[in-house]
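The protein record now logged underneath.
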Amino acid sequence: MPMWAIGHRNNTGFTLLELLVVLCVIGLLSAAGSVVLSGSEGRQISRNALAVSEFLKAVRRSAQTNGKAQRVEMAGRSLSAVGDGAMVKTPGNMAMRFVATGKIHVPADGIVFYPDGSSTGGVIELSLKGVTRRIEVDSQGRVNASK
């Protein structure tokens, strides 16, 4: 072998290090893309959780003001206040349901707010593509939206 050829090889491929760097870059880009997508779904579900919370608070205030119990029922993707026609809906791609937790049961006929401000309690869960928000109503009628 001539002296000028020593140390020179015919490089016709990628080294293992180059392949690992490319795979790391692809992984980082895909992770960043999924964070951006889940962020928009998170914002959408948070907006709807706020709307449901405000609706429940308004129904509670109505029960206190009118001196009559107000019941909130769920039908599909909408909540309605029985008797006064008020309603809130979620978008078609979002699921809404009553759920049970360790301290709050699943209401059989909806959540009832009483004139003294108390309620039967209940939990409403909104979900969209793996992102979930819960709205809890405790027995004192307090409404709390959580992640």
User: Anything to note?
Assistant: The radius of gyration is 27 Å. The domain at 15-146 is CATH 3.55.40.10 (minor pseudopilin epsh fold). DSSP finds one helix and eight strands in the chain. The first helix runs from residue 16 to 66.
